[in-house]
Structure formats: C-alpha cells, structure tokens
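Lab notebook, bench 4. Still working through the backlog of constructs that have no structural model yet. Next entry is a single chain of 145 residues. Request: give me the structure tokens for it.
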Amino acid sequence: MLEKIAAKQRALLARTIRAIGGSWKLWGFSLPLYRDDEIEVVRIRAWRGGYSSRHHHCEKDNLFFVTNGRLSIVSYGPQGPTKEILEPGAVLRVPAGVSHRFVALDDAVAYEFYRATTDRFLRAGDIVRQDVGGIVDGDPMEFDG
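Model written out:
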C-alpha cells in the first residue's frame, strides 16, 4: 500500500514539475529559473545516488552552487576522471567543452549557472550527452561513471 501511495506522490510531483516548465529525470528534477542571452539559472533537486548524464556544453560554462546535501562533480580529462565533492556553500566551475556529470551523495539541492562563452549567446541544444543519468546501485561515493 505504501508503495502505491509513494508512486502516486511521485507521479503528481512529476506532473507538477513539468507543468511549471521543469524536467523530471531519473535522478530527480531540474527547474529553469532565469534565462537571457548570456546567463541561465537552473535549480536541481537530486535524490541520493542520482547521477546526471555524462555530457559537455559546447559554448557555455557550467557553475554549480550547492545549497543542501552534497554533490560529487566528476570531470573527465585526458588523465581520467577527477572528482570534486561539493558541500553546502561550495561552488565549482566546469568550463565549456569539459565532459562531466554530477552524483548526489545525499539528497541535494543545487543551482546551475550557465554563462555563454562566445558572442553567439546561449542557445538550446548546447548539451552533448555521452550516456544517460540514473540512480547508483550501491554507494554513490564509489561511483565515477
């Protein structure tokens, strides 16, 4: 019975998030808050163990600001993955072109600030995904994708 109630609550929350312009994801949800030609702000709510797709942005920097919980930001460079643990109040910039993902080490809330890096302004479709997000099976601290 509790599973049915939880499923109904998740479905209602998903509909509500979509109705106000957000995106429901396997890992949680994102809600755009502001956008102009140069800046975009998105609030993310990630469940413990949730992780985003591995991706990069072609022409915009990605700045993470964590307000609740902890996020691990995994960046993929020539020497392999590197991991930064962000706690509330922490900020991390991922430059345009750098492949990365986040992993929620706890239930987490963060804000993503995107900044255009060219004179062509922010554009939709700037994200290039290498895989899909999901929920870690096991300890999220061990996951580096």
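Notes after review: The longest strand covers residues 60-68. The chain has a mean pLDDT of 91. Flag for follow-up if needed.
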